[in-house]
Amino acid sequence: MTAKHSPHTAETSSRGGSIRETLRRLYHGRTPGAIRFQLAVIVIDIAILAFFIATPLLQETASFLWLDYSVAALLAADIAARLFASSDIARQLKQPTVWVDIFILLTLLFPATLANLGFLRILRLWSLSRTGFLWRPLGRYGLGEWRETVHAVINLLTFLFIITGFVYTFFFRSAGGLTAYIDALYFTVATVTTTGFGDIVLPGVWGKLTAIVTMIIGISLFVRLAQSIFRPAKVFFPCPQCALQRHDPDAVHCKACGHVLKIPDEGV
User: Fold this and answer.
1) Which residues pair with 247 in a beta bridge?
2) Regarding the domain delimited by 146-231, which CATH topology (the fold level of the hierarchy) does it fall under?
3) Are 225 and 159 a contacting pair, CB within 8 Å?
């Protein structure tokens, strides 16, 4: 027996498909309208990141919860829209960037319960930099060739703010205020650069271990940043045969498998 679908069901399905197609064009399209939408989302993301950085200073204000839940609503809408626009939702849910965004959403929905993990919200900066969503509109302005350098800078900034948030939360929070947060940032930068002025030192064994881990990872990130600046420029163009991502701008064949490449002149 052939299943019958009511007009209402067909209309709902059609409307859902239309919404999905619209979201797909906005998030993944290259039309002027889609680029404007993507740039607007990037601006909103930057504002959200500013809120994450300032969270330690805003937690005691009367408007903090209102701001927190407003950001949670924006982030939830963005996650849902990206998933709905995806052609394979199950595969999308396996991406580390989606896990990071969901974790950040949980810290926003339960700010009191997960208060000590709030400093990890800055990972949103890392997840944003790893999506093509950021580079698609920026590539139109010739910024695609700086992708690897920007990745290195963002990795370093994300690490700096994570350590600053960690140090503030577990070592300086009792003092509170802007001065305590600046002290945490000052300690982090002095430790990462191995300057080690010594005027601010974390107490106890855990303080020493925090300084050790910060120095080791910080040095590695600085080396990575230097490599991305001074190494020969590469373009991001996946090889259709072996999926190698980086190639010389004038490459004709993939250096890994020899497949013929057709890299656009603009290198994005």
Assistant:
1) 235
2) Helix Hairpins (1.10.287)
3) no
| Residue 267, pLDDT score | 39
How far is 33 from 35, CA to CA, in rounded Å? 5
Contacts of 110 (CB under 8 A, 6+ apart): none
Look at residue 186 in the predicted model and tell me its pLDDT: 92
Cβ 182 vs Cβ 135: under 8 Å: no
The string of pLDDT tens digits covering residues 215-229 is 888 888 888 777 777
83 Cβ partners below 8 Å, 6+ apart? 89, 92, 93, 98
CA angle 243, 246, 248 (to 5 degrees): 125
- pLDDT beneath 50, residues of the chain: 1-2, 266-268
The full set of domain ranges for the chain reads: 12-142, 146-231, 234-268
pTM above 0.90, yes or no: no
Q: What pLDDT is attached to residue 1?
A: 47
Cα dihedral across residues 245, 246, 250, 255: positive or negative: negative
Q: Buried b / exposed e across 68-102, counting CB within 10 Å, b at 16+?
A: beebbebbeebbebbeebbeeeeebeeeebbebbe
Largest Cα–Cα distance in the chain? 81
Whether 97 contacts 131, CB under 8 Å: yes
> What gap in Å lies between CA 53 and CA 89, rounded to an integer?
31
